[in-house]
Predict the structure.
Amino acid sequence: PVAASLITLHNLHFMLNLLGEMREAIKKNTFADWVRRFLQDFFPMATPPPCPHCPPRWVRDALASCGIRLDDIFDWSEAASELPDMPKDHSGGGKEGKA
């Protein structure tokens, strides 16, 4: 139960900070720029073309419907493989090597 409570507190802290940053960007009318920077930080393996990786394509489609374009900062070509939704949780440090 303690671990679950700590994870919950961590997640709440993350979300409250994230929403606070978003709120400030909206107030300053810089939300689109904030989103672009956030995604570049969140998906560091994805870069402009040519790049073998891209964020999930649903991210591009969802933000395009809001008028936030990402074509200049990520390689969306068919050759680019999609990264997982939560790339920092898929660092390769899985169960391998654990006793």
